[in-house]
Design goal:
The complex is a heterodimer. Chain A is of the alpha+beta class. In chain A, 25% of the residues lie in helices and 37% in strands. Chain B has a domain at 79-240: MetI-like fold. The chains are: A alpha+beta, B mainly alpha.
Chain lengths: 364, 288
């Protein structure tokens, strides 16, 4: 995707153009990525999907077995051409999941480490580091060893350390995973600000959809080493294409054969939708669109099926009820009062109905 | 909450707790220590301590001041301390990079090399001395060339003592440092690489400071081993007072004609060993 007119002033970079191919026998990563300068891309996927492997490949810590990696027009790696720039020579900054701040160095020395390695004088490197820490609001902590920093402070030092070398590709591995819930909120907002100000390519890896949606401009969903969906956070949230994504964004998702306003999901199970689609299609609707009844609703309700309760758990101030209808899983959000009135319990037989107006159908 | 609930086991087995899972509950449920283990254990302890006690009992305390102020004792002690320290320095210089190579790289025959490195640990030191003579002796494989090209002869010199001590002491350092390196998180080196550090810079500025306790522990082990070296030293360097006669050699020779002097010298070595152990154990040798 190329759009020079859309980008911020980026110093003439063209961004990242990568096809990451890593064959490890039992596991194969095969993901193509294109990211414009100034754009923040999130790699979202379950554990073991290959997100961290992709990040390591971009940083040069895991060699590609195929494909290519180009950054701002410069080829960093291309196995077919036998070209490979080692990690220390790549203009890449990495923020590791547990930060990996050097424990024997102070925050300032950690941040000055990269510029020193690039040949900057000791005084200049320390001045640069002090400036970066100041910008992160950490001037007071410059002399502190990492073990004395809080999780949020360590995260900012890691960010300052990664930015100190002036990278053209910034990689963040689960940047908020090591923080407790309270710190996450603050750090997420702060990180968003820093990422928005970063003018080169930024890629973050996360299994947390909220982090991905708040921090990234665009999401690439990876499952089993392959890209399964790509789009803006809004597109992904509205039109999930795999069960994993649907679960992440909290939607019921079905795949079927559409003809006009009817999507046939399984033998004897069809959904009426407001949108007209033809051919293979997805239907998605939120658990709140599902209502449950003890008896069969009146005949005017078109989307109604017998269902069996398989489990219940509290979900905010609602109860999320898991059901099976004609062999397909279905979740419904009910108020505790409704659950009590319906006498719901695992194994209970009920009728489930879905309001057509709250369904969303789109081509598969 | 009853005692049978899984949560009841929680506080005992938290990951951060110092006791290993199960250790405490096992000692609690079987509080009696079996006699079949205690008796051999006590016998072993007595066996280890008895010679040291005997040394203290039979020490010629009255003539000790005279013995210890003799020039010969100080000569031998100074030589021992100097050569052991030089051997430790040489072990550090070559052994730490060797340990890094074994722990951080993969090359064909790495396992064989590792086995060969540990060989001097089990090799009788006298055999080591003979082997050193064949390698570095005046007519040795390399020694002949050293002699003709540089005029360097190692056998029966103080340098030869250092060589012999390094040969037996370095494996201790290599094994200790290699173990520490394997236990250290290699991802810090990756972090350094992403910051532009070459592998050598990452080693020097990140790895080495982080494994310093292990290196210190290895150095102490190597130093102690070098200080007590006897077999390889007497075979390769002989026993010339002031030049190659280290403390262990002096002790052995004194035992032939002046047992009281031998005991006095032994006491000095014991004191030096204890001082090193006491001085370093708490601070540095946690990795041992």
């Amino acid at each position: 995707m190329k759009g020079p007119a859309l980008t911020k002033d980026t110093g003439g970079g063209t961004g990242l153009d990568a096809h990451l191919l890593l064959d490890r026998g039992s596991f194969t990563l095969d993901v193509a990525l294109g990211v414009r300068p100034g754009e923040v891309l999130a790699l979202l996927g379950p554990n073991g999907a290959g997100k961290t492997t992709a990040l390591r490949a971009l940083a040069g810590l895991a060699p590609l077995t195929g494909g290519h990696l180009r950054l701002d027009g410069e080829t960093l790696e291309d196995p077919a051409l036998r070209r490979r720039t080692p990690p220390e020579a790549r203009p890449v900054g990495v923020i590791f999941q547990d930060y990996l701040l050097f424990p024997h160095l102070t925050a300032l020395e950690n941040v000055a480490f990269g510029p020193r390695c690039q040949g900057m004088s000791r005084a200049a490197a320390r001045a640069l580091a002090a400036g970066l820490l100041d910008r992160m609001g950490l001037a007071d902590q410059a002399g502190a060893k990492p073990r004395r920093l809080s999780g949020g402070q360590a995260q900012r030092v890691a960010l300052a350390r990664a930015l100190a070398t002036g990278p053209r590709l910034l990689l963040l591995d689960e940047p908020l995973a090591a923080l407790d819930a309270r710190a996450r909120l603050d750090v997420r907002a702060e990180l968003r600000r820093h990422l928005a100000a970063f003018e080169a390519v930024a890629i973050l890896v996360t299994h947390d959809p909220l982090d991905a949606m708040v921090l990234a401009d665009r999401l690439v969903v990876i499952e089993d080493g392959r890209r399964v969906q790509e789009g803006t956070p809004a597109e992904i949230a509205r039109r999930p294409r795999t069960d994993y994504v649907a679960r992440l964004v909290g939607l019921n998702l079905y795949q079927g054969e559409a003809a006009g306003h009817t999507v046939r999901l399984a033998p004897g199970l069809a959904l009426t939708t407001t949108e007209a689609v033809d051919g293979p299609a997805f239907v998605a609707f939120p658990p709140s669109a599902v209502t449950l009844h003890r008896d069969r609703p009146d005949s005017s309700a078109r989307n109604a099926w017998p269902a069996a309760v398989t489990g219940m758990e509290s979900h905010g101030d609602q109860i999320r009820v898991a059901l099976t209808a004609a062999g397909l899983p279905l979740t419904a959000d009910l108020t505790p009062v409704s659950v009590a009135e319906l006498l719901l319990a695992p194994g209970a037989e009920v009728w489930a109905s879905v309001k057509a107006a709250q369904t969303h159908a789109y081509p598969a | 909450m009853t005692d049978h609930s899984p949560a009841a086991a929680g506080p005992r087995d938290t990951p951060g707790s110092r006791t290993r899972p199960g250790t405490r509950s096992r000692t609690r449920s079987r509080s009696r220590v079996p006699v079949a283990l205690v008796l051999p254990a006590l016998a072993g302890l007595a066996f280890l301590l008895l010679p040291l006690v005997a040394l203290l009992i039979r020490a010629p305390w009255r003539s000790l001041p005279d013995q210890l102020t003799s020039a010969a004792v100080w000569q031998a002690l100074r030589l021992s301390l100097q050569t052991a320290t030089l051997a430790t320095a040489a072990s550090l210089l070559f052994g730490v990079p060797l340990a890094w190579l074994l722990a951080r790289t993969d090359f064909p025959g790495r396992r064989l090399v590792r086995a060969l490195v540990t060989l001097p640990l089990v090799l009788p030191p006298v055999v080591g001395g003979v082997a050193l003579l064949l390698a570095l002796g005046r007519n040795g494989v390399v020694g002949r060339w050293l002699d003709s090209a540089f005029g360097v002869t190692l056998p029966f010199t103080t340098s030869g003592v250092v060589v012999a001590e390094t040969f037996v002491a370095m494996p201790f350092l290599v094994i200790t440092v290699e173990g520490t390196l394997r236990a250290a998180d290699a991802r810090y080196e990756e972090a350094a690489a992403t910051l532009g550090a070459s592998r050598f810079t990452a080693f020097r500025r990140v790895t080495l400071p982080m494994i310093a306790p292990g290196v210190a522990a290895g150095a102490v082990l190597a130093w102690a081993r070098a200080l007590g070296e006897f077999g390889a030293t007497i075979t390769f360097a002989g026993s010339f007072p002031g030049r190659t006669q280290t403390m262990p050699l002096a002790v052995y020779l004194a035992l032939q004609d002046d047992p009281a002097a031998a005991v006095a010298l032994s006491l000095v070595l014991l004191a030096v060993s204890l001082a090193v152990l006491a001085g370093l154990r708490e601070r540095w040798t946690g990795a041992l």
